[in-house]
Amino acid sequence: MQLHFHNSLTRRKDAFTPIDPDHVRLYVCGPTVYDLAHLGNARPVVVFDVLSRLLRRVYPRVTYARNITDVDDKINARARESGEPIGAITARTTADFHADMAALNALPPDVEPRATQYIPQMVGMCQRLISRGHAYAEQGHVLFSVGSFPEYGSLSGRSPDELLAGARVEVAPYKHDAGDFVLWKPSDAETPGWDSPWGRGRPGWHIECSAMSEDILGPEFDIHGGGHDLIFPHHENELAQSCCANNTKRMANYWVHNGMLLVDGEKMSKSLGNFLTVRDILGRGAWAGEAFRLLLLRTHYRSALDYSVAALEECKAELDDFYAMLARQAPEARPHLGMVNWALEPLGDDLNTPLALARLRDLRTLENVANVGGSAAAVHARTPFPWVPEPGEARAAVLEVAKVLGLLWHDPAEWRQGGSSDDAAQIEAAIAARQAARVAKNWAEADRIRGELTAMGVVLEDTGGVTTWRRG
Ligand SMILES: [Zn+2]
Description:
Layout: E1 4-7, E2 12-15, E3 24-28, H1 39-58, E4 62-66, H2 73-82, H3 86-103, H4 119-131, E5 135-138, E6 141-144, H5 160-166, E7 181-186, E8 201-203, H6 205-217, E9 221-227, H7 231-246, E10 252-258, E11 261-263, E12 266-267, H8 278-282, H9 288-297, E13 305-307, H10 309-327, H11 337-348, H12 353-372, H13 377-382, H14 393-405, H15 412-416, H16 424-439, H17 443-455, E14 458-463, E15 466-471
Parallel strand pairs: 3-4, 3-9, 9-10, 11-13
Antiparallel strand pairs: 1-2, 5-6, 6-7, 7-8, 11-12, 14-15
Keywords: Aminoacyl-tRNA synthetase, ATP-binding, Cytoplasm, Ligase, Metal-binding, Nucleotide-binding, Protein biosynthesis, Zinc
EC number: 6.1.1.16
Cofactor: Zn(2+)
């Protein structure tokens, strides 16, 4: 399968050719751990989770590194406001992040470097940049000399004037040029710091990713990912640092960026009152993590994505349809390989998850027709499968494709019962009581219990002497 990705560096869709086809290397910027992950933080995690699952299907070995930024001025500010020690804030927030991303079925990356464990590499990179004439030390700071790198701006496509206008440029006495950015800065007694040739200090955010990615993946690797908002200045600066420190051309050959996430059509912000954390979504029920993942994948990753409660509920209904199909008894069957490849094919075309999902729906229809009858004429007309498959065949194909998308990981029976909830035991007891009434031919009592369950939103299905239930 030949993969293609839109490359921010070339501004076009490029065929993907790994540096080493036996070992694909991917780096994605991870969270700064000072607060719960918000919806915008989840989007790159899920997008690059699908990308890494796809790479693993195509290539024999993949190393996916995603960092934890655990030294940053936002963390320091949070500690000052709350009085909580920095180490406690970063440990708790990292654990929360792991739990939330696991609830979205995002697999952990292969390597998850923490910035505080790579300080010697950051200091070493600053020293190399100084010795090569790309950086200078001034008043306890180390700054990157933007004028020393003529390609600066090539990733974001900005001219030097636009770069100055776009950056929050501080005019500071230690800067030789207004566009120069900080690699290392001094720390006072209250701020975390490490000894360095320039005194006690701490790294700037950009140098953290350059040093960690180089240490783990090498000076040049295949794919660098992150949100679109990171292109400038973060990725532009990473690229400049890494290329100048190593005398290389590109740092990463493919720069892949996801679009922004809106809430009810507006940019999410605390002042607008539409700020939502992943945890807010997960609190809606056991179904919410998967529904939110589907919501993230049904829009192409480069487009702006609009979150709303209505959209989340649509995704739940969509998953209900898939789980209804999966809950039905079907013979064990091998996945139809042609169907699997057909549904996965769009992912190779710049991760076209909306089209892959549309094809997954068609496979679901084929399975339903194979099992319970009905018309597949529309599906036959638009797919290369103008026949009704053996029962179980399309179902197995759906599950195989869903693994790459990271969907349909719940037990179908539990899904239909709304997850393990507090009243499940009560419902099971009522069903047992109804069953006993039926055995005793006490039809009035059996109907009364059924009515009670219906009022609770529980739908009973009696098939072959067995009663199953789901929430209607
Ligand atoms: Zn980064």
